[in-house]
Structure to design on (214 residues):
C-alpha cells in the first residue's frame, strides 16, 4: 500500500471531470463508474485509490492524511486555510468570488457594511484589507435573497454566469478573486511519496497546458 496514492474527489460534476483527467493520465479505476454503494475504489495495478467526499470536506481529508491528494476549489481553500500544499491549478470549475448587491450599495462608505455570505473568512480578510467596517451575516442558503429583503447591504459569494443576480436586479460590484479547482496534497504524503506525487502532478499539468492551448 505504500506506493498507492489515495485521492479524495469532490462529489458532483466537478469530481467527474477531475476523475476523467486522472483516467487520461493512467490512473483509471473503472469500478468508480459503476452504480455501487462502495465508498472506496482501488486499482492496485495503477497504484491508486479513490473516494468521493463533499467538496467542502476534501481539504479536511487531505490535511489530516486520510487522502494523499485531493481536488478542492480555491474558494474552499481560502475560506478554510487548511495546512496543505497546493500543487496545480487544474483550470476546472472556473468562476469568481465577488461582492454583489443593488446598484450603489457600496456608496455609503462611512456606515458599517452588512455582508451576507457563506464565506465569512474571505469576506473579513477582503474588507480588512480595505479598512472597511463590516457586519458579517452567515447564511447557508440562497445568499441572493439577503439584499433583496434588506437583511444585508451586499453579499460575498461565488458568481458563475451572473444570471441569478441579473434576474433579481442585483449586480457584481467588486471582484475579489478568480476561482478554480486546485490539486492539493498532504504535507507528510508529499515528503514520503514525492516521486509518485510529482509524476502525477506533471502528467496533469501537461493535460491542463494542452487544454489551455486548445
Amino acid at each position: 500500500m505504500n506506493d498507492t496514492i489515495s485521492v479524495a474527489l469532490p462529489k458532483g460534476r466537478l469530481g467527474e471531470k477531475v476523475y476523467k483527467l486522472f483516467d487520461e493520465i493512467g490512473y483509471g479505476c473503472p469500478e468508480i463508474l459503476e452504480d455501487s454503494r462502495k465508498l472506496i475504489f482501488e486499482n492496485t495495478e495503477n497504484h491508486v485509490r479513490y473516494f468521493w467526499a463533499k467538496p467542502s470536506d476534501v481539504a479536511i481529508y487531505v490535511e489530516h492524511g486520510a487522502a494523499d491528494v485531493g481536488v478542492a476549489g480555491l474558494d474552499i481553500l481560502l475560506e478554510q486555510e487548511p495546512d496543505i500544499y497546493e500543487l496545480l491549478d487544474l483550470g476546472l470549475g472556473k468562476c469568481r468570488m465577488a461582492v454583489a448587491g443593488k446598484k450603489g450599495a457600496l456608496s455609503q462608505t462611512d456606515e458599517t457594511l452588512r455582508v451576507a455570505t457563506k464565506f465569512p473568512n474571505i469576506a473579513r480578510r477582503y474588507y480588512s484589507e480595505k479598512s472597511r467596517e463590516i457586519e458579517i451575516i452567515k447564511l447557508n442558503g440562497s445568499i441572493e435573497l439577503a439584499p433583496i429583503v434588506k437583511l444585508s447591504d451586499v453579499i460575498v459569494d461565488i458568481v458563475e454566469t451572473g444570471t441569478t443576480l441579473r434576474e433579481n436586479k442585483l449586480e457584481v460590484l467588486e471582484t475579489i478573486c478568480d476561482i478554480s479547482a486546485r490539486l492539493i496534497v498532504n504535507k507528510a504524503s508529499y515528503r514520503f511519496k514525492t516521486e509518485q506525487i510529482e509524476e502525477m502532478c506533471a502528467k496533469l499539468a501537461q493535460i491542463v497546458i494542452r487544454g489551455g492551448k486548445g
About this structure: The first helix runs from residue 13 to 24. The chain has a mean pLDDT of 94. The helical segments are 13-24, 58-63, 74-80, 120-129, 145-148, 163-167, 187-192, 194-213.
